[in-house]
Specification:
The structure is a homodimer. By secondary structure, the first copy, chain A, is an alpha/beta fold. Chain A contains 12 helices and 9 strands. The first copy, chain A, is globular and about 65 Å long. In chain A, helix 8 packs across helix 11 and helix 11 runs antiparallel to helix 12.
């Protein structure tokens, strides 16, 4: 019989990931802060956990994916938190994007309880989550990864083992830094040409025929040109991830000049936006008012 | 009989471009500040011009590609400069990367003499120049472009007509801004992971499987990982192009925060480099000393 999977965090990413685990035949127990987000999964056969602790207590493998480090701390160590409830021999997979430091702290706490731990943040967006084609960036012990690999394979097409705990988060922060700067670069370039009297569409057309072409720009350029930003990866989360990257850089004693400048741009747009836009909305920084 | 083409500027880009014009069967007259750079072309059948003026005087179409705005001003308006020598009815194509402002000034001067003018900077690097697969970003009149299109097609695979004079340069500066920031982003991300104890190769491997993949990064990542920077597009020229983009932004009354920060990084590396490296050498900024 397949191991029981617990799943905490049914947001834009978590919900389709959990559905793929269920479809792969794993008994599934889910919990979400807003319970209504669990309804579809329950209709498909998942059990609803009463709390993070109650969910963890039933799980052989517990997957968590919530929005930021404070949310991770709350579901693990808060009231009715998951961590003390995890059974000896179970494995916690955290797919949230957090600091490598918090990943290592969680690993130590798990080890004390005889629980395996992987930091396993993902990339691929909501599209990848729905198709089961996410990329997992894993930090932790090989034997722990091998134990849960089939569960990860239900959600992802590529699983990279990058080193000990924290390494998955380190690479994820670096990855999102590249994405944030690529989109900032496009936004700055579009601001430049449009203010100088050339239609943004022309820059995009030339770009796609040149060395400047990039996967993320194929996806985000149309949003910027239309000035419509339905959230695939929300700007508030990208803003948080740039902050985590800058904090890691500070701990390592290096400066990241473009990342720091871009953080200021994302911050300004986050403050000014009344909706919850995709991070391509960084282009709003240059909108004529 | 095919029109005679004059070609001024036989650098990393100009030399292979001129060779492709010659191979396409155009009578070719060449001039370069360092005459030795013309030897190969002369062996292949090109004539050597005695000066920019003497080269221009023989040309139905004059192509110029030199390193920066002062170099353009010198070959056009300096001693024995090309511009006064151009014949009525001829066309000047400037493929240098310069300010849109200087392009428009040159267009006005050409028009007074009955000479057609296109700003037609290129992208595609030395590889594209050698293969005849450059992308031309053209500003100017349609009828002027149509007159010289076959000459451009000898050197390039795509020709984008982007608007009136200056539009080609505007898009080129925006394009190089994207490239400069993409490579800066990769360099910052690699600095982050390596300082945090993860091998840079791992980030590149994950990146290439993710939405962060980009054409320029496939080319530049290996250079950064090997810490070897033979110039394909020299850092000193990218540094100049970011400066031109920032100057254009200032004229248009907008700020480009990441571009400004990145300019400082490229400046620092340019000052510290004793060789003439490719712009991927921006990664030297984070080298442990």
């Amino acid at each position: 019989m397949k191991p029981t999977v617990g799943f905490i965090g049914l947001g834009l990413m978590g919900k389709p990931m959990a559905l793929n685990v269920l479809k792969a035949g794993y008994p599934l127990v889910v919990w979400n802060r807003t319970a209504a987000r669990a309804e579809g999964l329950v209709r498909e056969g998942a059990k609803l956990g009463a709390s993070p602790a109650a969910t963890a207590a039933q799980a052989d493998v517990l997957i968590t994916i919530v929005s930021d480090p404070p949310a991770v701390e709350k579901i693990l160590w808060g009231a009715d938190g998951a961590l003390p409830a995890l059974r000896r021999g179970s494995v916690l997979i955290d797919s949230s994007t957090i600091s490598p430091e918090l990943a290592r702290k969680t690993a130590v706490a798990c080890e004390k309880n005889g629980v395996g731990y992987l930091d396993a943040p993902v990339t691929g967006g909501t599209w990848g989550a729905e198709k089961g084609e996410l990329v997992f960036m894993v930090g932790g012990k090989s034997e722990t990864l091998e134990k849960v690999r089939p569960v990860l394979e239900a959600m992802g097409k590529k699983i990279f083992h990058l080193g000990p705990n924290g390494a998955g988060q380190t690479v994820k922060l670096a990855m999102n830094l590249i994405l944030a700067l690529q989109v900032e670069a496009l936004a700055e370039a579009l601001a430049l040409v449009t203010h100088a009297g050339v239609a943004g569409e022309k820059l995009v057309e030339v770009m796609q025929a040149s060395m400047a072409r990039a996967a993320v720009l194929d996806v985000k350029a149309p949003l910027i040109l239309k000035n419509e930003f339905p959230p695939s990866f929300p700007l508030r989360l990208m803003h948080k991830d740039i902050r985590l990257a800058l904090e890691l850089a500070r701990q390592e004693g290096i400066t990241l000049p473009a990342a720091a400048a871009s953080y200021a741009t994302y911050s300004a747009v986050k403050e000014a936006s009344k909706d919850d836009p995709d991070y391509a909305a960084v282009a709003r920084f240059w909108q004529k008012t």
